[in-house]
């Protein structure tokens, strides 16, 4: 009798094991296999994301540097044609340096790929040192300017015995084209 109970218990355990391995375990094994495969894929994606993060950090630093450079360029190359303000700045510099501006004449703008050049011809007089300081201070104004076609000759004002220098030159101011700024903002 005891033997029958043991056989019955073993048979019940066997049936339970058979049901487990035939019905319950295979779907769980397939689910486990699917989850392991998904884990492997996610680990690969995580590796790619970490690599991209390394590149992103470098690219972000580079982008920030370029953005700062662009901001400095926008100060040097304003978008608007603020020639009256520029002429006032140059007149103040001339007065501060002791240079007399005899004449200035804006010329036709010259378009370039990213900017427009606005040449302005000047006729000034003063001493050699005053003229040098004047050109130096113009070069240090907070925007991109270029002096060219410099011509120097002696000059004497009427009623004065003192000889000065008369200089003619062209100062080119540059402005950004509007489409350049709009393209950057996109």
Automatic annotation (TrEMBL):
A GO biological process held by the record: type IV pilus assembly
Keyword vocabulary terms for this entry: Membrane, Transmembrane, Transmembrane helix
Sequence intervals crossing the membrane: 6-26
InterPro entries: PilO, Transl_elong_EF1B/ribsomal_bS6
Matches recorded under Gene3D superfamilies: 3.30.70.60
Protein name: Pilus assembly protein PilO
Native source species: candidate division WOR-3 bacterium JGI_Cruoil_03_44_89
